[in-house]
Design brief:
Layout lengths: L5 H7 L9 E7 L2 H7 L8 E8 L17 E8 L9 H19 L4 E3 L3 E4 L2 E13 L2 E12 L21 H5 L5 H20 L5 H5 L8 E5 L4 E9 L5 E5 L4 E4 L3 E4 L4
Parallel strand pairs: 1-2
Antiparallel strand pairs: 2-3, 3-7, 4-5, 5-6, 6-7, 8-9, 8-12, 9-10, 10-11
């Protein structure tokens, strides 16, 4: 039985802006797609939540495996008055909110992997997907999607695809007990509003986000469309670009790519 419903979510949220209104679906193709479809009339802060997604997606058009009643699947539609080059700072707000919400509900200190994964002990807990619409050089709106593995297992005997057994994890696996998706949703949306308000007031969010990045200081290989870039991730820009010191000593800023991190002891 699902622990989510429209009434329960409305009662649990403590926010002024985010989640006002909230749309809840027992089953939907993609919460991001719903947010886009409602964008013409939706206010800043629309929240879309689903128990099941049939066409959920992550970065690079990858499918997102999420069985019923086991994951937190949500999208926020935001309408900040910001230039397009600052859109990455909205993903920073959601990433920080996810880390802080997880800590508040479970006690776990999760981490972020550039550009938009959520990790626990090097394995993927979840991911974010930002989709941007522009009006000239300004943001018209941004849809921020979040998928988080909550009450499910990965490994032999589980229904999860075998390719995820060694790379993915869940909050239930990490703490050894089921986690309330409703409490987690309320905590994440509440913290996202705090960071979003700070961003709109002109306060920096970049340093706090960078401090949560597991990627920094590690050797990385970044797979782009036409090359593989090898080096060490040394910093991030205020807009969210990853600064890599390449093997030949140059510094490059990377804005997108598939990142593979080498862990060294």
């Amino acid at each position: 039985m699902s622990d989510l419903s429209a009434a329960a979510i409305e009662a649990a949220l403590t926010t002024r802006r985010l989640g006002r209104p909230t749309l809840y679906f027992a089953r939907v193709g993609s919460t991001n797609d719903v947010a886009h479809a409602r964008a013409a009339d939706a206010p800043d802060g629309l929240l879309v939540v689903a128990d099941v997604q049939t066409a959920g997606r992550g970065r690079l058009a990858r499918a997102w495996w999420a069985p019923p009643a086991a994951c937190l699947l949500m999208s926020l539609l935001l309408r900040p008055m910001l230039p397009a080059h600052r859109s990455g700072q909205l993903t920073m707000c959601l990433g920080l909110a996810a880390i802080e919400g997880i800590a508040a509900v479970t006690g776990l200190r999760a981490a972020l992997k550039w550009p938009n994964d959520i990790l626990w002990q090097g394995r993927k807990l979840g991911g974010m997907l930002a989709e941007l619409r522009l009006h000239g050089e300004q943001i018209d709106y941004v849809v921020l999607g979040l998928g988080l593995n909550v009450n499910l297992t990965f490994g032999p005997g589980s229904p999860a695809p075998a390719e995820l057994w060694t790379t993915a994890t869940s909050l239930q696996m990490a703490v050894g007990r089921p986690i309330s998706r409703l409490a987690l949703l309320a905590a994440i949306v509440g913290r996202c509003e705090v960071w979003y308000d700070r961003l709109l007031r002109g306060e920096p969010v970049h340093a706090a986000w960078a401090a949560q990045l597991d990627t920094l200081g590690r050797p990385v290989t970044i797979r782009e469309a036409d090359r593989d870039l090898h080096g060490v991730a040394i910093a991030v820009t205020p807009e969210g670009g990853l600064i890599v010191r390449t093997d030949d000593g140059r510094e490059e800023i990377v804005w997108a790519g598939d990142v593979h991190t080498l862990r060294v002891s």
